[in-house]
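dumping this here so i dont lose it
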């Protein structure tokens, strides 16, 4: 995969998961960059790789544990490790921070899969609306389009930016209301005691600004 990405001249950032990764990291020379934090860089070539690539790793001190050495109990440092392979011209610390941005993407992927029934989980397949692959494909694309619109709307109104798609849909879309037309205008009449009525009105006003 990495050969193919490099052939296309695409940038990549991959978290390394090797069976021998822990012992590999223990053998490296670590450079302290902050209290409890150290980094290292080293060349590595997996069995199926055509060439060596530079791996960048960071370790963070998470605490201490007791260990016996020659009959004596000592406090041993405990670290959390992370290792990356990337084509990005960034330092280890920058690579580590950059990878954290993936959590936002993970949340979006989870919502599209499970809240828009985009598949992946066999338990959700029975919820597809038809038995026709192409029809379901089209419905899924429409659903993703609707999801992207909701993301754009929530991004503009920062108060609701972190809400999940289901929450946003329940509060602002699937609500008791009537559409009224007249005088070349279309209005929505919300139930007087709707719990999120004030939020909905503020949300609408923010979108119009």
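and the seq i came up w/
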């Amino acid at each position: 995969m990495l050969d193919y990405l490099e052939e296309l001249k695409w940038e990549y950032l991959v978290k390394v998961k090797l069976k021998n990764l822990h012992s590999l990291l223990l053998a490296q020379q670590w450079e302290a960059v902050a209290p409890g934090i150290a980094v290292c860089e080293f060349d590595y070539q997996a069995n199926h790789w055509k060439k060596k690539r530079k791996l960048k790793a960071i370790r963070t001190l998470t605490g201490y544990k007791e260990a016996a050495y020659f009959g004596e109990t000592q406090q041993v440092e405990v670290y959390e490790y992370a290792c990356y392979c990337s084509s990005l011209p960034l330092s280890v610390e920058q690579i580590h921070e950059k990878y954290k941005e993936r959590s936002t993407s993970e949340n979006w992927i989870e919502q599209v899969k499970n809240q828009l029934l985009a598949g992946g989980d066999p338990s959700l397949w029975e919820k597809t609306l038809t038995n026709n692959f192409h029809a379901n494909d089209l419905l899924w694309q429409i659903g993703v389009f609707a999801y992207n619109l909701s993301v754009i709307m929530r991004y503009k109104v920062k108060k609701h930016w972190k809400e999940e798609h289901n929450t946003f849909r329940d509060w602002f879309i699937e609500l008791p209301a009537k559409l009224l037309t007249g005088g070349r205008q279309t209005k929505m009449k919300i139930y007087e005691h709707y719990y999120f009525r004030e939020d909905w009105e503020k949300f609408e006003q923010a979108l119009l600004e």
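The chain has a mean pLDDT of 82.
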